[in-house]
Amino acid sequence: MGMDPDAVAKAFVDHYYSTFDANRSGLANLYQDNSMLTFEGQKIQGSQNIVAKLTSLPFQQCQHSVSTVDCQPSGPSGGVLVFVSGNLQLAGEQHALKFSQMFHLMPTPQGSFYVLNDIFRLNYA
Amino acid sequence: MGMDPDAVAKAFVDHYYSTFDANRSGLANLYQDNSMLTFEGQKIQGSQNIVAKLTSLPFQQCQHSVSTVDCQPSGPSGGVLVFVSGNLQLAGEQHALKFSQMFHLMPTPQGSFYVLNDIFRLNYA
């Protein structure tokens, strides 16, 4: 049974940002050893290193507000590309930051998905 | 021989935006029949339909200025993910628009790459 890419993307985005905002270390099981993150140009590989980066960002509380979610199937491997734009409000800051982020989700043998590729950029609006 | 994803991404981005700004119909040979474009939420498939969309955008002259290019290999298929942010200046408009765009480039049997996935969003800064 194929899964609807739009449904996969929506469920992933809801789960990812609510987990990020509540408990960043809970993102670990969304990544695997071959996962890649490029965060503001810095390249990081592997679930452990990626979560270490995300949990060490210089802010404690934050709130993502998603503006747009676009998705496409990435090819015969069953992957899904997810492209997100939104606002990131940091605790104690007056103005939200705009961000764009893309994920390449790959199916697992268990019928779930993990993040193979993750690229994040602030737009400094 | 593997190709360096950063070199592929840089060469592609230079070629794509210079072609877009000079002669949009010249983009046709970068797409194939299975190529997908999501343009501000509108889904379009196939080289012919994609170029028809791009050439019918409601502006004649534009100039892309690329701010950031990030890339990652997309998996064992030899694909390259390219994530771009930048400014789009339309002729006659005072302010440039910010944009984000992602491409999934796939290798061709001829040793080149084509665009399998393309997602474009304006950030309305």
Automatic annotation (TrEMBL), chains A, B:
Superkingdom in the source lineage: Eukaryota
CDD domains listed in its UniProt record: NTF2 (cd00780)
The keyword Transport is assigned to this record: yes
Organism: Cucurbita moschata (Winter crookneck squash)
SUPFAM superfamilies according to UniProt: NTF2-like (SSF54427)
Gene, per the UniProt record: LOC111439162
Keyword rRNA processing: no
PROSITE patterns, per database record: NTF2_DOMAIN
Keyword terms: Cytoplasm, Nucleus, Protein transport, Transport
Quaternary structure annotation from Swiss-Prot or TrEMBL: Interacts with RAN1.
Record-linked PANTHER family: NUCLEAR TRANSPORT FACTOR 2
Protein name as annotated: Nuclear transport factor 2B-like
Cellular component terms per the entry's GO annotation: cytoplasm; nuclear envelope
Annotated function: Has a role in nuclear-cytoplasmic transport of proteins and mRNAs.
